[in-house]
Amino acid sequence: MTDLRGGIDLGGTKIQTVVVDETNAVLGEARHPTPTSGGPENVARAMEDAMREAAAAASVKAETLRGVGVGSPGDADGATGVVSGARNLPGWEGSFPLGEALTKALDTEVRIGNDVQVAVEGEYHLGAGRPFGSLLGVWWGTGVGGGIILDGKPWLGRGAAAEIGHMVVKRNGARCPCGRRGCMEAYAGRAAMEAKARREQAAGVETDLFKIMERRGRDRLTSSVWEHALREKDPLAESLIRRAVRYLGTGIASACNLLDVEAVVIGGGLGERFGERYASEIEREMMKHIFVSDNPPKMLIAELNDLGGAIGASLLITP
Amino acid sequence: MTDLRGGIDLGGTKIQTVVVDETNAVLGEARHPTPTSGGPENVARAMEDAMREAAAAASVKAETLRGVGVGSPGDADGATGVVSGARNLPGWEGSFPLGEALTKALDTEVRIGNDVQVAVEGEYHLGAGRPFGSLLGVWWGTGVGGGIILDGKPWLGRGAAAEIGHMVVKRNGARCPCGRRGCMEAYAGRAAMEAKARREQAAGVETDLFKIMERRGRDRLTSSVWEHALREKDPLAESLIRRAVRYLGTGIASACNLLDVEAVVIGGGLGERFGERYASEIEREMMKHIFVSDNPPKMLIAELNDLGGAIGASLLITP
C-alpha cells in the first residue's frame, strides 16, 4: 500500500477523480462524463474507470491507494456508504450501497460523504478557509447547497444540516424546485432561475438567454450561457442574476446571525464563475441584515475550483 | 466554602436569584424589581441584595457560595465579565464590569453569561432538553432570542451566535425594532407586536388591547394583557398572535434546515405563557418549510419556568 489517496467528485454531468499524496498535492486526475442512462451500477462502474485512470496518471494501481473518498449528491450516509435519492443521477431515486460496490471494485477502503460538505472541508483545510476556525460554505449552482465547519469540525446535525438553500428568505414567496415557498434557492438556484426566465419569456419579456443556449448547443441555461448573456448585456439575465445575488446575501446574513462563523466561502458552478465578480454585491446585501455588524464574517471565494470536490473527498481518508 | 452555587437572572423588570446545591435543587430564592433609574452600579447593588436574600433563605452567607453565575441581557462577555449595551437596563448603553463589581461585593467567584444562552443551557441540562444532544432554544418575549447547543456544548460563535430573532423570514418585510427589515422578531417579538397593534388601532381597527392594558395598570402590552385580550376574543389580538406564531414557525424551520438539531425548546415570557397552547400551530408552520421532513426536530416547551434563567446561570459555576 502507498501513502496516496483517491478522491471522487460525483456530479450530475461529470465524474472528477484525483490521486493526492500525503501533502495533498495532486499526482493524477481524470474526468469522465456521468452516465445519463442505466442505473447506480453503471455510475459506479464509470466511477471505478475514472478512479483507475487517475491512478494510472499517478503511476500507481488503484488497489495500492490507502483509500478513496467520494463526494456524492443525494442523501449520502457516511456510516453505511449508502446513497439514496440522488435524483440528478440515472435511476438513483432509491438507495444504492455505493461504498460497498466501490470497495469491492477498487479493493481498498472507500468512504462516502456529501458532495458539498466534502468540497467545503477541502476549502477549510486547503483552500480559502485555511485561516479560519469556523466556516459556512455556500455552494451556488443548480441548487444552493451548504457546508458548515465549527471549531474546526464539520457540523452535520443528524445528517441533514447546512441546507442553506432551503432557509426561508421570503415567507409566501416564490415556489422553490423543492416544492416549498420562499426558499433562498427559489431565487438563487440555477434551476429556479431558468424556470423564472422561461416564465418571463412566455409572458412576453424579451431575452436572448434561450437563443444563446441553442447557439451553444445546450438544453439548459448553464453557467456559461448566463455568462454569455451577461456579456451581451441581456436585461433579463442581468436582472435575474442581481435578484439571485440579493437573495444569496439575505440568506447568508440569516445563517450568519444564527452561526456567527468567521468566514463564508462561496463555491459551486455559479459561485466559481460569478462569485468574484459579485462578491461585493453579495456582501453589501448581507450587511443589510447582519445583526452584529461591527464584526461581520469574511466573504471569500472558493480557491480549489474544478478539483476542489475531489480533493475534499480525498480528505475523507485520513492522510 | 460550601458546595452551594448562586444564580442570578438579570431581566429588564426583575432580578431573580437562586441558591442551588450540587444536585441543582433550589434551596433558596429571591426576586427584586430591577432599578428603573440610576445606572449599572445601582443594578449591581440590587443584584447583590437579591443574591444575599436567596442565600439567607438557604441559611448560608453569600460569601460561602462556591460561586455565582449571572445571565445578563446586552452583550455579556464571559471572558472579562463586562456587560455592554444592555439597553433595557437604566444607564447601561455603555460597558460596565459587572463580573468584577459582583466579585468584590459578594467575595466569591462570579461568572457572566448571556441571559438566553444560560436559560437554554438550563433546559438542556435540567429541563425539557435533557434527552437530547443538540438543541435550539427560542426565547419568545419582548424580542426573540436564541441559544444553541451542539453535541452537548453551547455554540456561541464569536459571541454573537443564535440571533434567531434576526434571521430574515421576509426580505423587504416589516420593520424590526432593530431597524432592519423582515427579521422574525419584526413579526413575533412582543415589542414589534405592540407597535403593530398601535398602528392598526391608529388606522381605525377596533381592539380592546389598550383598554385592557390600562385597566390592568400597565403601560405596555405585557404577556398577561395579551392573555386577557385572547380570552375576550379580541380579533386584533388573535390575528397578531397567530401572525407571530406563523413567523416563529417559519424562522424555526429556517434555523433547523441549517442546524438539523434534535429538538427545539420554546421559552421566554410569551413562550411560557402561550407556548403550550400554540406549540402545534408553530410546529405545523415549521413543517411547511422543513427540508428533510421525515425526521423533524421535537418541539418542546421550557420546563424550568420562572426560575429557569437563574438556575441556568448557576450552571456557569462548575457544580
Question: Could you characterize what this model shows?
Answer:
Two copies of one chain form a homodimer. By secondary structure, chain A is an alpha/beta fold. Chain A has two domains: 124 residues, Nucleotidyltransferase, domain 5 (2-Layer Sandwich), CATH 3.30.420; 173 residues, Nucleotidyltransferase, domain 5. In chain A, 39% of the residues lie in helices and 19% in strands. The first copy, chain A, is built from ten helices and 13 strands. In chain A, strands 3-2-1-4-8 form a five-stranded mixed beta sheet, with helices on both faces. In chain A, 55% of the residues are buried. Chains A and B meet through strand 10 and helix 8 of A and strand 10 and helix 8 of B.
Supply the key terms:
5-stranded mixed sheet, globular, Nucleotidyltransferase, domain 5, about 325 residues, 2 domains, homodimer, 10 helices, about 40% helix
